[in-house]
From TrEMBL:
Gene from which the chain derives: nirK
Organism from which the protein derives: Chitinibacter fontanus
Pfam families with a match to the protein in the record: Cu-oxidase_3 (PF07732)
Enzyme class: oxidoreductase
Entry protein name: Copper-containing nitrite reductase
The family this protein is said to belong to: Belongs to the multicopper oxidase family.
Note on cofactor: Binds 1 Cu(+) ion.
Keyword vocabulary terms for this entry: Copper, Metal-binding, Oxidoreductase, Repeat, Signal
Length: 348
């Protein structure tokens, strides 16, 4: 190839690259202008099992999300402590609620007391890494990135810093709800519950401060399988509450990193299950499976008073590894639906 032949081709390639760059800059400028016209609000973030209030507005907004990464020591079961890595100081992390079409500006701060870097990958993001490359930050640093909530649904977010499974197994996951443009149907009670698996050298309830066990995580041999990060997070004074006849909605997810959930409520039938946290639902469901990094939305109406029991229906996980919770239901008895008294017949 002669020099005279090569030069025009090079110039055409350079010109094409310049045009693409100009087009990209023009698109970014147009997007920034459109975002600048949106009303601005700061997202309400809630600790589990509470859920941010439904979104009342009918048009998009620019939503500011302020989230921290925090490393905290607390009980994983009475008498046994664990160093949790968290979003916002809770397991699961603070719940986020936005509307389809919102522009979300997420601010992530890794507290100075942290020992290691963290970031965030939101499954609600359409783009490589889900925000993880933009938010990888050392202790004491902060980062910001922006995304548009294109798809309605219930999505998991988690730390994606290597080793990823370790960060997730230490509690770094949560959920973001992207409401559809038409909003969610009103209900009486909403709760936020996530299942996660934890790996320690000691057995369940061994006592003391238990560290993370990498080999048990690789072997998928969990010491604890928990709802909301502790064996007693949804029992006793922490039990969920509802009244007879309430329409209850549970936003349920599996943080993993390894174990899928077989979610079931003993004493209730799900009227609706929005599989995989999407928009389509199945009716009259007893148990639903949720994969690690996945979610579901279930709705049901308690018919009689008493305790409903939330479990992973792989029941060794419930009764030996901690995946159990209670919903305490108050209200009038309905013996025509459920008779609590046993009837014994005398033999003749």
């Amino acid at each position: 190839m002669s020099k005279l032949q090569f030069q025009p081709r090079f110039n055409r390639a350079l010109l094409s690259s310049l045009l693409l760059a100009i087009g990209s800059l023009a698109a970014m400028s147009a997007w920034a202008d459109a975002a600048a016209d949106l009303p601005v609000e700061t997202a309400e973030l809630t600790a589990p099992p509470m859920v941010p209030a439904p979104i009342a507005r009918k048009t998009p907004a620019k939503v500011i999300v302020n989230l921290t990464t925090e490393e905290v020591i607390r009980e994983i079961t009475p008498g046994t402590k664990y160093m949790f890595w968290t979003f916002g100081g809770t397991v699961p992390g603070k719940m986020i609620r936005v509307r389809q079409g919102d522009t979300v500006e997420l601010h992530l701060k890794n507290l100075p007391t942290s020992k290691v870097p963290h970031n965030i990958d939101l499954h609600a993001v359409s783009g490589p890494g889900g925000g993880a490359p933009q938010t990888l930050i050392a202790p004491g640093k902060d980062a910001t990135f922006t995304f548009k909530a294109l798809n309605p649904g219930l999505y998991v977010y988690h730390c994606a810093t290597a080793p990823v499974a370790m960060h997730i197994a230490n509690g770094m996951y949560g959920m973001i709800l992207v409401e559809p443009e038409a909003g969610m149907a009103p209900v009486d009670k909403e709760y936020y519950v996530m299942q996660g698996d934890f790996y320690t050298p000691g057995a369940f309830g061994a006592g003391g401060l238990q560290p993370f066990d990498m080999q048990r995580s690789i072997d998928e041999n969990a010491s604890y399988i928990l709802f909301n990060g502790a064996s007693n997070s949804l029992t006793g004074k922490n039990a969920l509450t509802a009244n007879v006849g309430d329409k209850v909605r549970l936003y349920f997810g599996s943080g993993g990193p390894n174990v899928a959930s077989n979610f079931h409520v003993i004493g209730a039938i799900f009227d609706k299950v929005y599989h995989e946290g999407g928009l389509k639902y199945q009716e009259q469901v007893q148990t639903t499976t949720v994969p690690p990094g996945g979610s579901t939305i279930v709705e049901f109406v308690p018919k009689v008073p008493g305790n409903l029991t939330l479990v992973d229906h792989a029941l060794s996980r419930a009764f030996h590894k901690g995946a159990i919770g209670i919903m305490s239901v108050s209200g009038e008895e309905h013996p025509e639906i459920y008779s609590k008294a046993a009837t014994a017949k005398a033999e003749h």
